[in-house]
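Hypothesis: this fold can be encoded by more than one sequence.
Test: take the structure tokens below, design a sequence, compare later.
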């Protein structure tokens, strides 16, 4: 499973240096940020289905899904989760830790 990581998660990980940072470091295999050219064909669709500030994450997730990769978005944004319901799964830090059976 690939996780498209919301910038707020990255900032939180860097500030707190706790379990979120360890989880982020352990799972980051691609360059961050990803160049927009990589997912530009999905920007318009992403703008239609996501909150205004989140469309780049959604576009990248749509691109990865189009390649047949299991992709989810890592974000604590409840509006994003609701907007993408049934399209792209959005996991909070708590949900990821629960799935991995790691205590925060």
């Amino acid at each position: 499973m690939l996780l498209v990581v919301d910038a707020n998660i990255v900032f939180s990980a860097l500030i707190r240096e706790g379990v979120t940072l360890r989880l982020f470091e352990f799972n980051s295999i691609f360059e961050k940020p990803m160049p927009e050219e990589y997912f530009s064909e999905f920007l318009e669709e992403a703008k239609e289905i996501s909150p205004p500030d989140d469309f780049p994450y959604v576009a990248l997730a749509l691109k990865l899904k189009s390649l047949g990769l299991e992709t989810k978005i890592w974000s604590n944004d409840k509006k994003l989760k609701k907007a993408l319901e049934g399209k792209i799964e959005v996991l909070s830090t708590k949900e990821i830790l629960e799935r991995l059976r790691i205590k925060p």
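Strands lie at 2-5, 71-74, 90-91. The longest helix spans residues 55-66.
Hypothesis status: open.
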